[in-house]
Task: structure prediction
Amino acid sequence: MSIEFLRGNSQSPRGHAILVARSTSDPSVVFWTYCIVPPLPFSMSKYFPAFLASQLSPEELRESTNVSIFPIPPMLEEGGSFEHLQMLAERRDDDFCDIGLVNPRDEMARMQQAMEKCQEYGMLYMNYAATFTQASPSREIEAEEPLALDDLDAEELMMETMTERQRLAELSKLVGVARYATEGSDKPLLQETKQRMQRIAKPLADKYKSVELLAAAFDPGERGAKLAQLYLERSFKLLDEEYAEIPGIERAIRELRD
Result:
C-alpha cells in the first residue's frame, strides 16, 4: 500500500515523519521508524573514522556522499502502542503515516519496507519542496552585500582549520573514491576527487609524502591500490609516532615500486 497520512498532508509533508506498520500476525503490535529528509543533502563519508573508511568499498563510499533521505532506525522496530506514537507525533509536530503490514519475523522485509516507505515519503517532500520560492526583499540583499559571502569558499575555510589527523583521515576516504573513479573511468569524478585531495594534502609536511600518495591513488591497477594503502599506513604511523613500524612499510613500498 502507499503511505497514508494520518497526521499531516501528502501535498505538503513536513520533512520528518513517524512511519508505523502493524504486525501481520497481531494487528495490535505496532512497528515504527522515523523518516528524516534533511534540509540539504550532505556527505556522510566525511564523518567516518579513518579505520572504518579504509574498510569500505568504493561503491559504499560513493553511496554515502549524497545522503538526502534516511530512516532511523533503518529497520522497522517494535515499540510503543499506536496511540502513544500518535501522541508523540502530535507533541513533536511530526507527520504520522501508516505504511501497512509487516511480517515481524522477516527482518529483511522490515528493513526493506522502512527504506522503501521512507524513500516514498522523501519523494513527496521533494515534490513539495520544488514549489518553494527563494525570492528575497531587495533591502535584505543590500544588507548582505558588505559581507561578500558569495566570495567566500566555506569548504576552503573548513580545510584551513583541519588537523593533520583530520587531513589524513579525509585523504583515506578519498583514496577509495579515487580508486572507484579510476577503475570506472569516471572522468568528472576523477578530476573533482584529485582537486579535493590536492587541496587537503597541500599543507601537510613533506614527511607524509602526500605527492606520492596521490600519484598511487590515481595509478590504475592493483599496484597503485596497494601503494596508496601503504603510504596511508606510513602516514598514520608517523603521526602516532610508531616509528618501529615504519621501516617494514617502507620496505614494502620499495618492493612495489621496484
